[in-house]
Specification:
- This protein is an alpha+beta fold.
- It folds into 3 domains: about 100 residues; about 45 residues; about 55 residues, Roll (Nucleotide Exchange Factor Grpe, Chain A, domain 2), CATH 2.30.22.10.
- The chain is built from 3 helices and 6 strands; from the N terminus they run αααββββββ.
- The strands form 2 sheets. Strands 1-4-5 form a 3-stranded antiparallel sheet. The chain has a 3-stranded mixed sheet with strand order 2-6-3, with no helix packed on it.
- α2 runs antiparallel to α3.
- It is elongated.
Amino acid sequence: MKRKMNEHIDLRHNNIGKSTENKENTENSGMNDREESEISAYSATPENTSEDLEGNVEASDSVVSAVRVIEEKLAEMQDKYIRLSAEFDNYRKRTLREKMDMSKYAGENLLLGIIPLMDDFERGLKHMDTSTDCMALKDGIDIIYGKFSDFLKQNGIKEIESLNSNFNVDLHEAVAKVPVEEDKKGKVVDVVQKGYYLQDKVLRFAKVVVGE
């Protein structure tokens, strides 16, 4: 019986040993599987790295291309700005020069119209020294006066009709007041200096004497 118990104990030891061995083999097999997976993954990494590098290179090239396009557009806009700035500066200088010339020579046409009247006056003065015909001299002065009056009208200047009209502070400047009949009170009874319009604007007020 003692021998049977020993055999039974030996059998248990053998079973335990086999179980431990199987467990170790299983663990070793699992470790081998993990190592193979890691090796497989490691072996696939260079290909993935290569693809990633190629993608990064393509992305970098596209960024560089976009930056180059933006730089070209910026350079073009800067060139346009410089050209427009130069053109505007030239325009400003030209208009300023034209304004200066306009203000400097604004009366050119007016003076060209007056010069012939000056010629007429000079001829009249020469005839005064030698002529004895007073009527001829008077006629000559009347002609010059008519020309000058027409010249003023052509340039928009006309006389303010003041005599016997009601006194108007917008047209007249009273230099004196005199007693008059009842129907002439508040009216212009004499014109000391004529007034003139330039178009619709009062160029010079008429100096008048007003009845009271």
